[in-house]
Amino acid sequence: MDKIIAPLLLCLVLAGCLSACVEAPVYEGPPAKNFDGESFSNTKKMNKTLLDMIRFGWGSLTTAERWPDQVPVSAQKISQSVVNRGIAVTYINHSTVLIQVAGLNILTDPIYAERASPFTWAGPRRVHGPGIELADLPDIDVILISHNHYDHLDIATLQALLARQQKKPLILAGLGNGLLFAESGLHHFRDMQWDDAVEEQGLKFTFVECRHRSGRGISDQMKTLWGSFVIETPEGNIYFAGDTGFSPHFKAQGERFGQFEIALLPIGAYEPRWFMADVHLNPEEAVQAHMDLNARRSLAIHFGTFQLTYEARD
After folding, report:
1. What pLDDT does residue 62 have?
2. Quick check: is 94 in a domain?
3. Residue 308 domain-assigned (yes or no)
4. Of 50, 139, 150, 198, which is least surrounded by CB within 10 A?
5. Cα dihedral across residues 285, 307, 156, 301: positive or negative
6. Percent helix, strand and coil across the chain, each rounded to 5?
7. Cα gap 140→186, rounded to integer Å
8. In degrees to the nearest 10, what's the CA dihedral of 170, 171, 176, 178?
């Protein structure tokens, strides 16, 4: 079952019978620029059909490169001291990154689960452990959730993070995700529309447009909002892309926010391009995004941990 690439495709293989068990609560609100009253959309529409999804799923069984079952990784320790000068960025796994700046500890899309899946018995299994164990993290002040796919929003990880510290971190995510947080006992959150901003201890977090999608089952597809984050700090701007395909939004955000001190850009889960180009950068596009954003440095994320698409691990 490990070769079934995504929770959506897993549900399709099971003929939708488990969909009601895994779908997320959906956003309800007035129509807006990216919301028609029922579903969210990208600036440029995507036109994938159910047949396309079945074709992609079949290819994952027949043509995807084989990944190793396990890659040895030695978890490292990290200082528990806060960072007051400069920016410290520590890659943990997949899209999980610890950002330390201006006295705050920020964690992006945390996942410590064995599988990126609603199930413990099926779905993409991690091929290596995290670079820092959850118990060894410093106390987290802010958690950024780019969207609700299982490899980016892992409820068990969020619950474990909150249980280990007295001060509860603020969870920032797109519109509609707060319903899932609330029913999971995660009550310190803020739902955000594109261009909404939240200030926390002197830092400004802006939720910005990217090109992706959402959904944890079948009937909740595109019913909560996805996005990227810009963090404005005294030490320079930071960009966390989450998941995204390539589009003019990179250029627009580079012009809007000025130079980024560092950008966290996804480079994995990009083949086949006929299916994935809408929603995932390939490495060459990540380089172009780095330039369009006017980033001084960029760090690659979203690769090498879970096999989600066809390409080899390396």
Report:
1. 87
2. yes
3. no
4. 50
5. negative
6. 20, 20, 55
7. 14
8. -60
CA quadruple 65, 226, 274, 302: dihedral, nearest 10: -30
Q: Is residue 217 part of a domain?
A: yes
Return the CATH number at 274: 3.60.15.10
Cα 52 to Cα 54: distance, rounded to the nearest angstrom = 5
Domain range for 104 is 7-301
Helices and strands in the chain, H and E counts? 8, 12
- Secondary structure (H, E, C), 18-49: CHHHHCCCCCCCCCECCECCCCECCCCCCCCC
Residue pointed to by tokens 């002197």: 202
Report yes or no on 306 lying in a domain.
Answer: no
> Torsion over CA of 268, 274, 276 and 278, rounded to 10 degrees?
120
Alpha-carbon torsion (125, 130, 133, 134), positive or negative: negative
Distances 116 to 45, 133, 273, 277 between C-alpha atoms, Å = 26, 17, 22, 21
Q: How many domains does the structure of the chain reveal?
A: 1
Cis-peptide into 25, omega within 30 deg:
no
Q: How far is CA 294 from the centre of its chain?
A: 22
Read off the pLDDT of residues 200-244 as tens digits, 9 standing for 90 and up.
Answer: 999 999 999 999 999 999 899 999 999 999 999 999 999 999 999
- The DSSP bridge pattern shows strands 295-301 and 260-266 to be parallel
- Distance, CA of 8 to CA of 104 (rounded, Å): 35
What is the SS3 assignment for 50? helix
pLDDT of residue 64: 93
Sign of CA dihedral 290, 110, 137, 75: negative
